[in-house]
Amino acid sequence: MKRTKVIDALKCTAYGSDICVKGWVRSKRGSKGIFFIALNDGSTIKNIQIVGEDANFQEETVKRITTGACLSVIGRLVESPAAGQASEIQATAIEILGDCDNTYPLQKKGASWEYLRTVAHLRPRTNTFGAILRIRHNMAMAIHTYFHEHGYFYFHTPLITASDCEGAGNMFQVTTKNLYDLKKDEQGKIIYDDDFFGEQTSLTVSGQLEGELGATALGAIYTFGPTFRAENSNTPRHLAEFWMIEPEVAFLDQEELMDLEEDFIKYCVKWALDNCRDDLEFLNKMIDKTLIERLEGVLKETFVRLPYTEGINILQEAIKNGKKFEFPCNWGDDLASEHERYLVEEHFKKPVIMTDYPRAFKSFYMKQNEATADGGSVGYKGAVAPGPTMQGTDVLFPSIGEIIGGSVREESYDKLMAEIERREMDMTHLWWYLDTRKYGSCPHAGFGLGFERLILFVTGMQNIRDVIPFPRTPKNAEF
Ligand code: 4AD
Ligand code: MG
Q: So where are the chain's domains?
Protein backbone atom coordinates (compact mmCIF):
# COMPACT_ATOMS: atom_id res chain seq x y z
CA MET A 1 0.00 0.00 0.00
CA LYS A 2 1.24 3.48 -0.90
CA ARG A 3 2.36 5.59 2.05
CA THR A 4 0.50 8.81 2.90
CA LYS A 5 2.45 11.59 4.59
CA VAL A 6 1.13 12.58 7.99
CA ILE A 7 0.53 16.16 6.82
CA ASP A 8 -1.80 14.81 4.10
CA ALA A 9 -3.42 12.17 6.31
CA LEU A 10 -4.39 14.88 8.81
CA LYS A 11 -6.11 16.86 6.06
CA CYS A 12 -7.78 13.83 4.48
CA THR A 13 -11.53 13.45 5.05
CA ALA A 14 -12.03 10.14 3.24
CA TYR A 15 -13.16 8.58 6.50
CA GLY A 16 -13.57 4.84 6.44
CA SER A 17 -10.86 4.25 3.85
CA ASP A 18 -7.64 2.38 4.55
CA ILE A 19 -4.42 4.29 4.74
CA CYS A 20 -0.72 3.62 5.38
CA VAL A 21 1.48 6.01 7.37
CA LYS A 22 5.11 5.66 8.41
CA GLY A 23 7.03 7.57 11.04
CA TRP A 24 8.62 7.70 14.46
CA VAL A 25 6.83 7.18 17.76
CA ARG A 26 6.69 10.37 19.78
CA SER A 27 4.79 8.78 22.64
CA LYS A 28 2.64 5.80 23.49
CA ARG A 29 0.12 5.36 26.24
CA GLY A 30 -2.46 2.72 26.94
CA SER A 31 -5.41 1.87 29.12
CA LYS A 32 -8.03 -0.89 29.30
CA GLY A 33 -6.62 -2.93 26.46
CA ILE A 34 -6.32 0.02 24.04
CA PHE A 35 -3.11 1.83 23.10
CA PHE A 36 -2.60 5.27 21.59
CA ILE A 37 0.48 6.22 19.59
CA ALA A 38 1.49 9.75 18.58
CA LEU A 39 3.30 9.22 15.27
CA ASN A 40 5.35 11.89 13.48
CA ASP A 41 7.07 11.67 10.10
CA GLY A 42 8.59 15.17 9.96
CA SER A 43 6.21 16.44 7.28
CA THR A 44 4.48 18.62 9.90
CA ILE A 45 4.82 19.59 13.55
CA LYS A 46 1.57 17.68 14.15
CA ASN A 47 1.43 14.00 15.10
CA ILE A 48 -1.20 11.61 13.90
CA GLN A 49 -2.88 9.49 16.53
CA ILE A 50 -2.87 5.75 16.00
CA VAL A 51 -5.35 3.75 18.04
CA GLY A 52 -5.04 -0.02 18.45
CA GLU A 53 -6.52 -2.81 20.56
CA ASP A 54 -3.98 -4.97 22.35
CA ALA A 55 -6.07 -8.03 21.48
CA ASN A 56 -5.55 -7.50 17.73
CA PHE A 57 -1.73 -7.54 17.88
CA GLN A 58 0.97 -9.85 19.12
CA GLU A 59 2.08 -8.92 22.61
CA GLU A 60 5.68 -8.75 21.39
CA THR A 61 4.80 -6.19 18.69
CA VAL A 62 2.95 -3.91 21.12
CA LYS A 63 5.93 -4.04 23.49
CA ARG A 64 8.29 -2.93 20.73
CA ILE A 65 6.28 0.25 20.10
CA THR A 66 8.53 2.50 22.18
CA THR A 67 9.41 6.21 22.04
CA GLY A 68 11.66 6.76 19.02
CA ALA A 69 10.81 3.46 17.25
CA CYS A 70 10.03 3.65 13.55
CA LEU A 71 6.71 2.15 12.42
CA SER A 72 4.70 1.42 9.34
CA VAL A 73 1.00 1.45 10.17
CA ILE A 74 -1.97 0.40 8.08
CA GLY A 75 -5.43 1.19 9.35
CA ARG A 76 -8.75 2.90 8.86
CA LEU A 77 -8.89 6.67 8.79
CA VAL A 78 -11.67 7.85 11.11
CA GLU A 79 -12.94 11.15 12.44
CA SER A 80 -11.30 11.68 15.80
CA PRO A 81 -13.43 12.03 18.91
CA ALA A 82 -10.46 13.71 20.65
CA ALA A 83 -10.22 17.50 20.73
CA GLY A 84 -7.58 19.27 18.62
CA GLN A 85 -7.29 16.72 15.80
CA ALA A 86 -9.60 16.02 12.87
CA SER A 87 -8.68 12.44 12.13
CA GLU A 88 -6.93 9.42 13.59
CA ILE A 89 -6.11 5.91 12.43
CA GLN A 90 -7.54 2.69 13.78
CA ALA A 91 -4.63 0.35 13.24
CA THR A 92 -5.11 -3.03 11.63
CA ALA A 93 -1.44 -3.83 10.92
CA ILE A 94 1.72 -2.47 12.52
CA GLU A 95 5.21 -3.27 11.31
CA ILE A 96 8.21 -2.22 13.39
CA LEU A 97 10.70 -0.84 10.86
CA GLY A 98 13.28 0.11 13.49
CA ASP A 99 13.34 -0.70 17.19
CA CYS A 100 14.39 1.89 19.73
CA ASP A 101 15.43 0.86 23.21
CA ASN A 102 15.60 2.90 26.39
CA THR A 103 19.12 4.17 25.69
CA TYR A 104 17.53 6.56 23.12
CA PRO A 105 18.94 10.01 24.03
CA LEU A 106 15.65 11.82 23.39
CA GLN A 107 13.71 9.84 25.96
CA LYS A 108 12.81 12.73 28.22
CA LYS A 109 10.99 15.91 27.33
CA GLY A 110 12.41 19.31 28.24
CA ALA A 111 16.09 18.53 27.61
CA SER A 112 18.33 21.65 27.69
CA TRP A 113 19.62 23.28 24.50
CA GLU A 114 23.16 22.45 25.62
CA TYR A 115 22.30 18.77 25.97
CA LEU A 116 20.56 18.69 22.59
CA ARG A 117 23.71 20.08 20.93
CA THR A 118 25.56 16.98 22.15
CA VAL A 119 23.02 14.83 20.28
CA ALA A 120 22.80 16.96 17.15
CA HIS A 121 22.57 13.78 15.07
CA LEU A 122 19.15 13.06 16.62
CA ARG A 123 17.79 16.47 17.63
CA PRO A 124 16.08 17.03 14.25
CA ARG A 125 13.55 14.48 15.56
CA THR A 126 12.40 16.79 18.36
CA ASN A 127 9.39 19.05 17.86
CA THR A 128 11.40 22.24 18.21
CA PHE A 129 14.18 21.31 15.79
CA GLY A 130 11.67 19.89 13.34
CA ALA A 131 9.93 23.28 13.37
CA ILE A 132 13.18 25.23 13.04
CA LEU A 133 14.43 23.09 10.16
CA ARG A 134 11.16 23.35 8.23
CA ILE A 135 11.26 27.14 8.71
CA ARG A 136 14.90 27.19 7.59
CA HIS A 137 13.94 25.40 4.37
CA ASN A 138 11.07 27.84 3.83
CA MET A 139 13.34 30.83 4.28
CA ALA A 140 15.68 29.44 1.62
CA MET A 141 12.70 29.13 -0.73
CA ALA A 142 11.61 32.68 0.11
CA ILE A 143 15.06 34.00 -0.76
CA HIS A 144 15.30 32.24 -4.11
CA THR A 145 11.74 33.24 -4.98
CA TYR A 146 12.29 36.89 -4.04
CA PHE A 147 15.34 37.27 -6.23
CA HIS A 148 13.97 35.22 -9.08
CA GLU A 149 10.78 37.29 -9.14
CA HIS A 150 12.80 40.52 -9.07
CA GLY A 151 15.00 39.55 -12.00
CA TYR A 152 18.21 38.61 -10.16
CA PHE A 153 20.37 35.74 -11.37
CA TYR A 154 21.68 33.11 -8.94
CA PHE A 155 25.44 33.43 -9.37
CA HIS A 156 27.78 30.75 -8.00
CA THR A 157 30.93 32.12 -6.45
CA PRO A 158 33.85 29.90 -5.43
CA LEU A 159 34.33 28.58 -1.91
CA ILE A 160 38.06 28.15 -2.36
CA THR A 161 39.79 31.45 -2.96
CA ALA A 162 43.20 33.09 -3.05
CA SER A 163 41.87 36.49 -1.89
CA ASP A 164 40.47 37.89 1.35
CA CYS A 165 37.31 39.91 0.74
CA GLU A 166 36.88 41.48 4.14
CA GLY A 167 40.61 41.88 4.67
CA ALA A 168 40.21 40.73 8.25
CA GLY A 169 42.46 37.71 7.83
CA ASN A 170 40.14 35.29 9.64
CA MET A 171 40.45 32.61 6.99
CA PHE A 172 40.74 28.82 7.06
CA GLN A 173 43.57 27.64 4.86
CA VAL A 174 43.09 25.02 2.17
CA THR A 175 46.06 22.82 1.44
CA THR A 176 46.88 19.25 0.51
CA LYS A 177 50.36 19.61 1.94
CA ASN A 178 51.66 17.69 4.88
CA LEU A 179 52.29 20.43 7.41
CA TYR A 180 55.54 18.75 8.57
CA ASP A 181 56.78 19.05 5.08
CA LEU A 182 56.43 22.77 4.27
CA LYS A 183 58.94 24.45 2.01
CA LYS A 184 60.14 27.84 3.20
CA ASP A 185 62.22 30.56 1.61
CA GLU A 186 65.24 32.26 3.20
CA GLN A 187 63.01 34.59 5.23
CA GLY A 188 61.06 31.62 6.58
CA LYS A 189 58.02 32.37 4.43
CA ILE A 190 56.12 29.35 3.20
CA ILE A 191 56.44 28.54 -0.50
CA TYR A 192 53.25 27.17 -1.99
CA ASP A 193 54.42 26.40 -5.51
CA ASP A 194 54.17 22.64 -5.00
CA ASP A 195 50.84 22.84 -3.16
CA PHE A 196 47.62 21.83 -4.96
CA PHE A 197 46.79 25.30 -6.31
CA GLY A 198 50.38 26.50 -6.48
CA GLU A 199 49.56 29.42 -4.19
CA GLN A 200 48.12 30.03 -0.75
CA THR A 201 44.35 29.37 -0.74
CA SER A 202 41.58 29.63 1.84
CA LEU A 203 37.86 29.08 2.33
CA THR A 204 35.94 32.19 1.37
CA VAL A 205 34.65 34.71 3.94
CA SER A 206 32.31 36.30 1.38
CA GLY A 207 31.40 35.89 -2.28
CA GLN A 208 31.08 39.64 -2.76
CA LEU A 209 34.15 40.36 -4.87
CA GLU A 210 33.22 37.70 -7.41
CA GLY A 211 29.58 38.78 -7.02
CA GLU A 212 30.60 42.23 -8.26
CA LEU A 213 31.94 40.58 -11.42
CA GLY A 214 28.50 39.05 -11.92
CA ALA A 215 26.61 42.28 -11.22
CA THR A 216 28.72 44.30 -13.61
CA ALA A 217 27.82 41.84 -16.37
CA LEU A 218 24.33 40.51 -15.60
CA GLY A 219 23.02 43.61 -13.86
CA ALA A 220 21.69 41.98 -10.72
CA ILE A 221 22.88 38.75 -9.12
CA TYR A 222 22.74 37.04 -5.76
CA THR A 223 24.79 34.36 -4.10
CA PHE A 224 23.52 31.98 -1.45
CA GLY A 225 26.10 29.65 -0.02
CA PRO A 226 28.31 28.72 2.89
CA THR A 227 30.99 31.12 4.14
CA PHE A 228 33.73 30.47 6.63
CA ARG A 229 35.28 32.63 9.31
CA ALA A 230 37.99 31.57 11.66
CA GLU A 231 37.13 34.24 14.19
CA ASN A 232 37.57 32.89 17.65
CA SER A 233 34.37 34.44 18.91
CA ASN A 234 32.37 32.06 21.01
CA THR A 235 29.12 34.04 21.03
CA PRO A 236 25.46 33.16 20.47
CA ARG A 237 25.66 35.08 17.14
CA HIS A 238 28.81 33.66 15.47
CA LEU A 239 29.49 30.48 13.57
CA ALA A 240 32.72 29.42 11.88
CA GLU A 241 30.61 28.10 8.98
CA PHE A 242 27.47 30.04 8.15
CA TRP A 243 25.31 30.67 5.12
CA MET A 244 25.23 34.07 3.51
CA ILE A 245 22.96 35.67 0.93
CA GLU A 246 24.72 38.36 -1.10
CA PRO A 247 22.82 40.34 -3.72
CA GLU A 248 24.92 42.68 -5.86
CA VAL A 249 23.28 45.19 -8.19
CA ALA A 250 24.53 47.54 -10.87
CA PHE A 251 23.26 51.15 -10.92
CA LEU A 252 21.96 51.01 -7.34
CA ASP A 253 22.58 53.99 -5.06
CA GLN A 254 22.61 54.08 -1.27
CA GLU A 255 18.95 55.01 -0.90
CA GLU A 256 17.90 52.20 -3.25
CA LEU A 257 20.19 49.77 -1.46
CA MET A 258 18.41 50.50 1.81
CA ASP A 259 15.03 50.07 0.09
CA LEU A 260 16.20 46.66 -1.12
CA GLU A 261 17.47 45.60 2.32
CA GLU A 262 14.18 46.53 3.98
CA ASP A 263 11.92 45.09 1.29
CA PHE A 264 13.86 41.83 1.19
CA ILE A 265 13.78 41.21 4.96
CA LYS A 266 10.07 42.00 5.12
CA TYR A 267 9.37 39.63 2.24
CA CYS A 268 11.14 36.79 4.09
CA VAL A 269 9.31 37.50 7.35
CA LYS A 270 5.96 37.64 5.55
CA TRP A 271 6.77 34.36 3.80
CA ALA A 272 7.30 32.72 7.19
CA LEU A 273 3.98 34.06 8.50
CA ASP A 274 2.19 32.88 5.36
CA ASN A 275 3.85 29.49 4.94
CA CYS A 276 5.04 28.29 8.35
CA ARG A 277 2.00 28.96 10.50
CA ASP A 278 1.88 25.65 12.41
CA ASP A 279 5.58 25.74 13.22
CA LEU A 280 5.48 29.41 14.24
CA GLU A 281 2.48 28.77 16.48
CA PHE A 282 4.37 25.93 18.13
CA LEU A 283 7.43 28.10 18.73
CA ASN A 284 5.23 30.95 19.90
CA LYS A 285 3.69 28.66 22.50
CA MET A 286 6.82 26.83 23.61
CA ILE A 287 9.78 29.19 23.09
CA ASP A 288 8.73 32.81 22.88
CA LYS A 289 5.22 34.08 23.56
CA THR A 290 5.76 37.30 21.62
CA LEU A 291 7.25 35.75 18.48
CA ILE A 292 4.35 36.08 16.06
CA GLU A 293 3.51 39.54 17.38
CA ARG A 294 7.12 40.59 16.79
CA LEU A 295 7.18 39.21 13.25
CA GLU A 296 3.93 40.95 12.38
CA GLY A 297 5.29 44.13 13.99
CA VAL A 298 8.34 44.20 11.71
CA LEU A 299 6.11 44.21 8.63
CA LYS A 300 4.40 47.37 9.84
CA GLU A 301 7.55 49.26 10.85
CA THR A 302 9.46 51.60 8.61
CA PHE A 303 13.12 50.93 9.39
CA VAL A 304 14.99 53.94 10.78
CA ARG A 305 17.78 55.22 8.49
CA LEU A 306 20.46 56.58 10.74
CA PRO A 307 23.85 57.99 9.78
CA TYR A 308 26.58 56.78 12.12
CA THR A 309 27.30 60.36 13.19
CA GLU A 310 23.73 60.86 14.37
CA GLY A 311 23.87 57.50 16.12
CA ILE A 312 26.94 58.63 18.05
CA ASN A 313 25.13 61.83 19.01
CA ILE A 314 22.20 59.83 20.41
CA LEU A 315 24.58 57.59 22.38
CA GLN A 316 26.48 60.60 23.76
CA GLU A 317 23.19 62.17 24.80
CA ALA A 318 22.21 58.93 26.57
CA ILE A 319 25.52 58.90 28.44
CA LYS A 320 24.89 62.50 29.53
CA ASN A 321 21.55 61.35 30.88
CA GLY A 322 23.14 58.65 32.99
CA LYS A 323 23.25 55.65 30.66
CA LYS A 324 26.34 53.48 31.33
CA PHE A 325 28.13 51.54 28.58
CA GLU A 326 31.06 49.19 29.04
CA PHE A 327 32.88 50.36 25.88
CA PRO A 328 33.57 53.92 24.68
CA CYS A 329 31.54 55.34 21.79
CA ASN A 330 33.21 58.48 20.56
CA TRP A 331 33.11 59.39 16.88
CA GLY A 332 35.45 57.00 15.12
CA ASP A 333 34.84 54.03 17.44
CA ASP A 334 33.36 50.84 16.06
CA LEU A 335 30.03 50.37 17.83
CA ALA A 336 29.85 47.50 20.30
CA SER A 337 26.75 45.36 20.44
CA GLU A 338 25.61 47.19 23.63
CA HIS A 339 25.52 50.44 21.61
CA GLU A 340 23.63 48.86 18.72
CA ARG A 341 21.16 47.30 21.13
CA TYR A 342 20.58 50.59 22.90
CA LEU A 343 19.74 52.32 19.62
CA VAL A 344 17.52 49.53 18.31
CA GLU A 345 15.87 48.20 21.45
CA GLU A 346 15.66 51.22 23.74
CA HIS A 347 15.88 54.39 21.67
CA PHE A 348 14.03 53.63 18.43
CA LYS A 349 12.42 50.29 19.38
CA LYS A 350 12.53 49.18 15.75
CA PRO A 351 15.06 48.03 13.14
CA VAL A 352 17.73 50.56 12.22
CA ILE A 353 19.76 50.84 9.04
CA MET A 354 22.98 52.53 10.03
CA THR A 355 24.86 54.36 7.28
CA ASP A 356 27.98 56.38 6.51
CA TYR A 357 30.57 54.88 8.78
CA PRO A 358 34.08 56.19 9.42
CA ARG A 359 36.33 54.31 7.06
CA ALA A 360 38.68 53.21 9.83
CA PHE A 361 36.72 50.06 10.64
CA LYS A 362 35.03 49.38 7.30
CA SER A 363 36.27 47.52 4.24
CA PHE A 364 38.41 48.96 1.46
CA TYR A 365 35.80 48.55 -1.27
CA MET A 366 33.15 50.87 0.17
CA LYS A 367 32.19 54.06 -1.62
CA GLN A 368 33.87 57.06 -0.08
CA ASN A 369 31.78 60.11 0.73
CA GLU A 370 32.94 63.51 -0.50
CA ALA A 371 35.28 65.25 1.89
CA THR A 372 34.16 68.79 2.82
CA ALA A 373 36.30 71.92 3.11
CA ASP A 374 36.77 71.44 6.85
CA GLY A 375 38.19 67.97 6.25
CA GLY A 376 34.93 66.27 7.13
CA SER A 377 32.56 64.55 4.82
CA VAL A 378 28.92 64.87 4.02
CA GLY A 379 27.03 61.87 5.20
CA TYR A 380 23.52 60.81 4.41
CA LYS A 381 20.99 63.66 4.64
CA GLY A 382 23.65 66.25 5.17
CA ALA A 383 25.05 65.15 8.52
CA VAL A 384 28.60 66.47 8.67
CA ALA A 385 31.17 64.08 10.07
CA PRO A 386 34.65 65.12 11.18
CA GLY A 387 36.41 62.78 8.77
CA PRO A 388 35.82 60.85 5.54
CA THR A 389 33.03 58.34 5.82
CA MET A 390 31.99 55.43 3.64
CA GLN A 391 28.60 54.46 2.29
CA GLY A 392 28.07 51.36 4.38
CA THR A 393 24.50 50.37 5.22
CA ASP A 394 24.19 47.81 8.03
CA VAL A 395 20.80 46.63 9.24
CA LEU A 396 20.55 46.28 13.01
CA PHE A 397 17.74 44.17 14.48
CA PRO A 398 16.32 43.89 17.98
CA SER A 399 17.94 41.04 19.97
CA ILE A 400 20.05 40.02 16.94
CA GLY A 401 22.22 43.07 16.34
CA GLU A 402 23.75 43.22 12.86
CA ILE A 403 21.69 41.06 10.50
CA ILE A 404 22.89 42.66 7.25
CA GLY A 405 26.21 44.22 6.30
CA GLY A 406 26.13 46.14 3.07
CA SER A 407 27.48 49.09 1.14
CA VAL A 408 27.67 51.04 -2.05
CA ARG A 409 30.96 50.10 -3.73
CA GLU A 410 33.63 52.57 -4.73
CA GLU A 411 33.47 52.60 -8.52
CA SER A 412 36.28 55.08 -9.14
CA TYR A 413 39.55 53.31 -9.96
CA ASP A 414 41.65 56.16 -8.58
CA LYS A 415 39.79 56.48 -5.30
CA LEU A 416 39.79 52.73 -4.79
CA MET A 417 43.53 52.52 -5.51
CA ALA A 418 44.22 55.38 -3.10
CA GLU A 419 42.37 53.52 -0.36
CA ILE A 420 44.18 50.26 -1.16
CA GLU A 421 47.51 52.06 -0.95
CA ARG A 422 46.51 53.81 2.26
CA ARG A 423 45.83 50.38 3.76
CA GLU A 424 49.04 48.95 2.28
CA MET A 425 47.04 46.03 0.89
CA ASP A 426 48.67 43.41 -1.26
CA MET A 427 46.57 43.35 -4.41
CA THR A 428 48.50 40.65 -6.29
CA HIS A 429 45.54 38.32 -5.99
CA LEU A 430 42.92 40.96 -6.74
CA TRP A 431 44.09 42.29 -10.12
CA TRP A 432 40.86 40.97 -11.66
CA TYR A 433 38.78 42.93 -9.17
CA LEU A 434 40.46 46.16 -10.19
CA ASP A 435 39.63 45.41 -13.84
CA THR A 436 35.93 46.05 -13.04
CA ARG A 437 36.92 49.66 -12.31
CA LYS A 438 39.16 49.86 -15.37
CA TYR A 439 36.74 48.58 -17.99
CA GLY A 440 33.27 50.12 -18.05
CA SER A 441 33.09 50.78 -14.32
CA CYS A 442 29.62 51.50 -12.96
CA PRO A 443 27.97 52.51 -9.72
CA HIS A 444 26.85 49.40 -7.86
CA ALA A 445 25.92 48.22 -4.40
CA GLY A 446 25.09 45.08 -2.46
CA PHE A 447 24.83 43.47 0.91
CA GLY A 448 25.33 40.24 2.85
CA LEU A 449 22.59 38.77 5.01
CA GLY A 450 23.61 36.17 7.59
CA PHE A 451 21.12 33.36 6.95
CA GLU A 452 21.31 31.99 10.49
CA ARG A 453 20.77 35.45 11.97
CA LEU A 454 17.59 35.71 9.92
CA ILE A 455 16.51 32.29 11.20
CA LEU A 456 17.24 33.43 14.78
CA PHE A 457 14.88 36.33 14.30
CA VAL A 458 12.15 34.33 12.60
CA THR A 459 12.18 31.46 15.14
CA GLY A 460 12.80 33.46 18.32
CA MET A 461 15.71 31.15 19.18
CA GLN A 462 18.52 32.66 21.24
CA ASN A 463 21.61 30.77 20.10
CA ILE A 464 22.89 30.51 16.53
CA ARG A 465 24.05 26.93 17.26
CA ASP A 466 20.39 25.94 17.42
CA VAL A 467 19.24 27.19 14.00
CA ILE A 468 21.66 25.18 11.83
CA PRO A 469 21.64 21.38 11.85
CA PHE A 470 25.33 20.87 12.59
CA PRO A 471 27.02 24.01 13.95
CA ARG A 472 30.71 24.65 13.49
CA THR A 473 32.24 26.73 16.29
CA PRO A 474 35.66 26.93 17.96
CA LYS A 475 36.65 23.46 19.22
CA ASN A 476 33.54 21.89 17.74
CA ALA A 477 33.23 20.14 14.40
CA GLU A 478 31.41 17.00 15.49
CA PHE A 479 28.75 15.37 13.29
O1 4AD B 1 29.19 42.31 7.59
P2 4AD B 1 29.84 41.19 6.83
O3 4AD B 1 31.20 40.77 7.26
O4 4AD B 1 29.81 41.64 5.31
C5 4AD B 1 30.40 41.03 4.26
O6 4AD B 1 30.96 39.97 4.30
C7 4AD B 1 30.17 41.73 2.97
N8 4AD B 1 31.20 41.28 2.03
C9 4AD B 1 28.77 41.41 2.49
C10 4AD B 1 28.41 42.11 1.20
O11 4AD B 1 28.32 43.31 1.19
N12 4AD B 1 28.19 41.36 0.15
O13 4AD B 1 28.89 39.91 6.89
C14 4AD B 1 27.56 40.00 6.41
C15 4AD B 1 26.60 39.36 7.39
C16 4AD B 1 26.57 39.99 8.78
O17 4AD B 1 25.77 41.13 8.81
C18 4AD B 1 26.01 38.87 9.61
O19 4AD B 1 24.60 38.79 9.51
C20 4AD B 1 26.59 37.64 8.96
O21 4AD B 1 26.96 38.00 7.65
N22 4AD B 1 27.79 37.14 9.67
C23 4AD B 1 27.81 36.03 10.43
N24 4AD B 1 26.84 35.16 10.75
C25 4AD B 1 27.18 34.13 11.54
N26 4AD B 1 28.42 33.92 12.01
C27 4AD B 1 29.44 34.76 11.71
N28 4AD B 1 30.67 34.52 12.15
C29 4AD B 1 29.15 35.88 10.87
N30 4AD B 1 29.88 36.91 10.37
C31 4AD B 1 29.04 37.65 9.64
MG1 MG C 1 29.57 43.57 9.13
A: 6-98, 125-170+205-466
| CA within 13 Å, CB half, 321 | 7
CA-to-CA dists, residue 243 to 103, 226, 263, 320, angstroms: 34, 4, 20, 40
- Would you say 235 and 461 are in contact if contact means Cβ atoms under 8 Å apart? no
CATH entry, 125-170+205-466, from 3.40.50.20, 3.30.930.10, 3.40.605.10, 3.40.50.1100:
3.30.930.10
The verdict on the CB of residue 345 being under 6 Å from ligand 1 is no
What predicted TM-score, i.e. pTM, was given to this entire model? 0.95
Sequential DSSP letters for 301-322:
PPPEEEEHHHHHHHHHHHHHTT
The pLDDT tens digits of the residues spanning 157-179 come to 999 999 887 877 799 999 999 88
Is the beta carbon of 404 within 6 A of some atom in ligand 1?
yes
**CATH class in words for 6-98:** mainly beta
C-alpha of residue 223 to centroid of ligand 2, in Å: 17
Q: Which of 136, 155, 206 to mutate to test the pocket of ligand 1 (most atoms within 8 A of CB)?
A: 206
Asked if residue 238 has its Cβ within 6 Å of ligand 1, the reply is yes
Mutation to probe ligand 1, out of 208, 453, 464 (largest number of atoms < 8 A from CB)? 453
From the alpha carbon of 240, which atom of ligand 1 is closest?
A: 28
Structure confidence by residue, pLDDT tens digits, 184-205: 999 989 999 999 999 999 999 9
- Matching fold, domains 6-98 and 125-170+205-466: no
Residue 263, number of CB atoms within 10 A of its CB: 12
**Does 242 sit in the ligand 1 pocket, CB within 6 Å?**
yes
